[in-house]
Amino acid sequence: MQEVEAVRDENILKSIPVLLSKHSTQQMADVWEFGINMALRISDLLGIRYSDIKDGRLTMVESKTGKVADIPLNAKALAITKSIMKEYPEGEFLFQSRNSRNISTRIKPLSRQSVAKAFKDVGEIIGVKLGTHSMRKTRGRFLYAKTNDIARVSKMLRHSSTGVTLKYIGITKSDIDADFNEMVL
């Protein structure tokens, strides 16, 4: 699997949903924006059911860890949720596949592969290696830039160690070297 990156530039971050809606679909733009705001693994993000959302919170069991994630929906995530549920009141999944050619087929969420392709295509336009993990990595990186609290980022991402989190959000040796050079006491 190809290594994907966190988005580091806020202007690029803001351009991604615009490019996704232009070069793919509004649904892919919604996946990106919701994913950036919720920092979920892609399997959990695509598996969100309407029934997982109640009173402005998302409560679900994470597929990888088996842990319960109980996360408040911020204003952006709540707006996306309300918009989708209003447009598709009979939906089951928040990001439900709408390309079913056969009405009798089972209702299912978007596929990880279709999301990965849309993100990769936009990543090629902007020069960033985007993938399904980029949303989660980006959320962690921006929180770290804001707080400089790796333990907090690790807790938000529900990682077991801060070392994993540092690698995950793309803090490299050159970033640490720059910290030594920039901070002179």
What does this protein look like?
The longest helix is centred in the middle third of the chain and has 15 residues, at 112-126. The chain has helices at 10-23, 26-38, 42-46, 75-87, 112-126, 134-147, 150-157, 162-168, 173-182; strands spanning 53-54, 57-61, 68-72. Helix 1 crosses helix 5 (112-126), helix 2 (26-38) packs across helix 6 and helix 7 (150-157) crosses helix 8. The protein has a three-stranded antiparallel sheet, with no helix packed on it. The termini are far apart. By secondary structure, it is mainly alpha-helical. The mean pLDDT is 92. Residues 1-181 form the Tyr recombinase domain. Keywords: DNA integration, DNA recombination.
Quickly describe the structure:
The protein is mainly α and 185 residues long. It has helices at residues 10-23, 26-38, 42-46, 75-87, 112-126, 134-147, 150-157, 162-168, 173-182, and strands spanning 53-54, 57-61, 68-72.
List keywords for this structure.
185 residues, mainly alpha, hpI Integrase, Chain A, three-stranded antiparallel β-sheet, 9 helices, 3 strands, globular
Let me know the CATH homologous superfamily: Intergrase catalytic core
Structural class computed from helices and strand pairing: mainly alpha
Apparent shape: globular
**What's the CATH architecture?**
Orthogonal Bundle
Residue runs with pLDDT of under 50 for 5 or more positions = none
CATH-defined fold name: hpI Integrase, Chain A
SSE succession: HHHEEEHHHHHH
Q: What spatial order of strands do you see in the largest sheet? A: 1-2-3
Straight-line distance between termini: 42 Å
Instruction: Please give the number of β-strands.
Output: 3
Number of helices: 9
